[in-house]
Amino acid sequence: xxxxxxxxxxxxxxxxxxxxxxxxxxxxxxxxxxxxxxxxxxxxxxxxxxxxxxxxxxxxxxxxxxxxxxxxxxxxxxxxxxxxxxxxxxxxxxxxxxxxxxxxxxxxxxxxxxxxxxxxxxxxxxxxxxxxxxxxxxxxxxxxxxxxxxxxxxxxxxxxxxxxxxxxxxxxxxxxxxxxxxxxxxxxxxxxxxxxxxxxxxxxxxxxxxxxxxxxxxxxxxxxxxxxxxxxxxxxxxxxxxxxxxxxxxxxxxxxxxxxxxxxxxxxxxxxxxxxxxxxxxxxxxxxxxxxxxxxxxxxxxxxxxxxxxxxxxxxxxxxxxxxxxxxxxxxxxxxxxxxxxxxxxxxxxxxxxxxxxxxxxxxxxxxxxxxxxxxxxxxxxxxxxxxxxxxxxxxxxxxxxxxxxx
Length: 407
Description:
By secondary structure, this protein is of the alpha/beta class.
């Protein structure tokens, strides 16, 4: 994101602050679509960043909804039910019935268990409507059903006349760095889908597959699966499958990560036991990089000097700023609150703003927001066409951490 835009955002909205660049978001979707070359559709897993759901609803083919809260976000945004995949390991019956009454046969529904499937079947029969269902195939954890259960479901599908077993859902985990891991999974799915065809004379029409593509968060880091070449290899593997249905890639982190910046202001600068520290007004409760451990890896960080900055691009001392390492720590009372260890282009001062890039996925929701009752950061979106759009004001959270008398 342009430095002047970031400076304006910090000045106008204060810190800590998330800025989401909607132009960069659209560029990333277009890049991924171009690499896939129409071999697969795209589904946005909104858990990565619910604030971007409206934008992705216009740019992707589907939105994956994994909770009642996420469903209500989509409903309030006016996203049509035919764009939703209703997913999630836990579907409470009362919640699912509310979703069904609203979405009816327009949405697609995953089934994590036979219990969920029977709930869908009961509603469908009582309303005389046909629902499209994707059984989820487990990868060996608590999610989904095993191969034998899905085989049995397909073979006994006549028992559910108002359910259309349309697709198969599979997601094994995130952060895959090597192409071979995704190729192996696609070969496994291809074989399983072909076996179902041979055994039950039934063909799944669609495959909803979460490849779990990793994101290069840190300096000098390359992730094979995230690159253009890696994406093209995924497309080639899909194109080479013997099963002939339609594939939809379910992505969250890979779509959203690069469009976000997290801004936090340096509030204190000190040296302790020959170690240099910057204390900022944010912290690990508000920023998350997958794989980061107590600031061991250096993310992409930009420094915005304050208006009152007195040092130049280089410290006048014999030791230049570029030679000096700084440990950036947040405002939490825990030694774990280390954001990174970096060198900067100038000596940091109180009032300077650090911009942590590639924070468009998970940071806004995954941190320990209530820890120490700190305020909740503001959120703004920016695009060249529409300018600035505040999405959430900075707000106090202490009231959520105090006893209140209830009737």
